[in-house]
């Protein structure tokens, strides 16, 4: 325990006690500051990723809504197909019975309307599918970008840790060399 009640030395106190060169201490403190900056950047990136994750969740909700609409459109399309086949049967029955030309014309008009409605439903369905694919594509692109950024930050942190380890080892070597030097001076 130290005189002032602390149990640990600061880095500057250790440098002064070891007799190490002041540049090494300042480099280590600078390295520590840059390491702290990288950690802060990493935390900020983590916050951004959480925000973008929330955005992706909202996009997922939008995709689910689009899927529900697509299901409803499919049901409506099936209903129109069924009505279309019924109208075809009626038209054939009316033609076979040689009904009045006005009734046949009405049945044909109904059939054309059903076909138009079916085409509109199919177009709407394709638009929904295209929008869904576009949202999925954007989501994957965003995830890939974040993955690359995280890998870059991780590499920077690993490099910083390696340089700190090297500097600590160099400091230990300098300390040993200083002691040997003092010992040799004392002997000779």
UniProtKB/TrEMBL annotation:
Keywords: Coiled coil. Residues 28-177 form a coiled coil. This is Uncharacterized protein. It comes from Eptatretus burgeri (Inshore hagfish). The lineage of its organism: Eukaryota, Metazoa, Chordata, Craniata, Vertebrata.
